[in-house]
Amino acid sequence: MSEDSGAVEDSHVAMESEDIIMPSDDKLLFAERIFTRLNPPSIGAIPGMIHKKAKTVGGIFAGYAVFWWLTVLQVKNEPSFDSIFFGPEFLTITILAPVLVFTGSLLSDYSRELGQLFPGLVSGVMFVLAVLYTFEPAIMGVMGDVGTSDGVWKTTRLVVLCTTVLMAAKLLIDAWLLVWVKEFMEKNPGIDYSDDGENLPDSEQLLDTEA
């Protein structure tokens, strides 16, 4: 009788193991890359890392908005400036250049993590345009087309705005990747995650588990 019950238990275990749907090799490799890049100290530390990065991004964007309001919108009688690259005025450039940096950062990381060619090409174009818009006023000031001090002041503000957005974009991307890993772990509890934050089992181990 005990042998029969043992056989039944073994069959149940075998059926449960067959019901486990293992993730694809691409998703497992993506999770490995995120662990290697962000290096969380432990699995349990991931929610705290997400919270910290998200809070920092919110603070950066708040500071960005205050700086832009004080140094762009509140400045009176500022000399006008129109870019030679498609003709936007300075107020538009203070919005356009950071947007190019932010979008370019998203596309750059998307291209790097997923190995996509086109997003990387587009991000390169966006970064070049952002650099041109940012340093054009200072270059025009040196050439005498606009006042030197005014050109340097415009470029300084654009550098601060674009750098701030670049920092926020990097942290936001890291937070999103950590969210993806957290959801991946919750959907695949059968994978043996290490407690010290080391890499997940590689694709060969995954194939051995499936076999």
Structure description:
The structure is a single chain. The chain is an all-alpha fold and 211 residues long. The chain has a domain at 52-188. 76% of the residues lie in helices and 0% in strands. The protein has helices spanning 2-19, 25-38, 46-73, 90-114, 117-143, 148-187, 203-210. The two termini are 31 Å apart.
Summarize the structure.
With 211 residues, this protein is mainly α. Helices cover 76% and strands 0% of the residues.
Percentage of β-strand residues: under 5%
Class by SSE composition: mainly alpha
**Helical element count?**
7
Q: How widely separated are the two ends?
A: 31 Å
Tell me the overall shape. Answer: elongated
Percent helix range: over 70%
Strand segment count: 0
pLDDT averaged residue by residue? 78
Order of helices and strands: HHHHHHH
Supply Rg.
25 Å
- Major sheet size, sense and barrel closure: none
Low-pLDDT parts are: 1-20, 195-211
Keywords:
211 residues, mainly alpha, disordered N terminus
